[in-house]
Write a structure and sequence with these properties.
Chain lengths: 115, 110
């Protein structure tokens, strides 16, 4: 199993450009999450999904949109990138029906720079 | 909501010593806690987790202790090795959502 994969690994955008980050998991997990990680701060939840076709806002959702058209994929979109969105983005997934654990498994991250 | 914080941003230990990394949480309703290891340039890697109905759980060279009375969580690493050098952070929450601390940078000196 590849676990959680993210595409791309690195990206540089200009202010106002748009892009989509792709997350894929092969663990048949129901829940998927997008976080951002900034220096000196813990992981902050942007959006999450509790199942195919559903999405919900997390702690810092402004400026981002998400879609979960397939159970294994979770897309994060930036419609008009801003320098404040420069960050490392992590995708995670959890829950395959085992209620004894809420372990979230993380991808390797996407390092995004907005100029 | 939950607030999770670490006591020390950095910890330096000698190879072979035991390491203890601490965490505090605010929400007494949180019923699940977890520790991650994150190496530079990589994603967080699951280490060990614990449910609130337990006080202690052991893994390979790692132990997590949960004190619900004072809302405190700790990670103990036995016989710390150079490969243990990384940022460690805790998470806590319930119902599939977690809040994470900022992390402690563990440096292992040879």
């Amino acid at each position: 199993n590849a676990g959680v994969t993210q595409t791309p690994k690195f990206r540089v955008l200009k202010t106002g450009q748009s892009m989509t980050l792709l997350c894929a998991q092969d663990m048949n997990h129901e829940y998927m999450y997008w976080y951002r990680q900034d220096p000196g701060m813990g992981l902050r939840l942007i959006h999450y999904s509790v199942g195919e076709g559903t999405t919900a806002k997390g702690e810092v959702p402004d400026g981002y949109n998400v879609s979960r058209l397939k159970k294994q994929n979770f897309l994060l979109g930036l419609e008009s990138a801003a320098p404040s969105q420069t960050s490392v983005y992590f995708c995670a997934s959890s829950y395959s029906g085992d209620r004894t654990t809420d372990t979230q498994y993380f991808g390797p991250g996407t390092r995004l720079t907005v100029l | 909501g939950e607030s999770v914080g670490l006591h020390l941003p950095t910890l330096s230990v000698q190879e072979g010593d035991n390491s203890i990394i601490n965490c505090a949480y605010s929400n007494s309703a949180s019923d699940y806690f977890i520790w991650y290891k994150q190496e530079s340039g990589k994603g967080p890697q699951f280490i060990i987790d614990i449910r609130s109905n337990m006080d202690k759980r052991q893994g390979q060279r790692v132990t997590v202790l949960l004190n619900k009375t004072v809302k405190h969580l700790s990670l103990q690493i036995a016989a710390t090795q150079p490969g243990d050098s990384a940022v460690y952070f805790c998470g806590g929450g319930s119902n599939y959502k977690l809040t994470f601390g900022k992390g402690t940078l563990l440096t292992v000196n040879p």
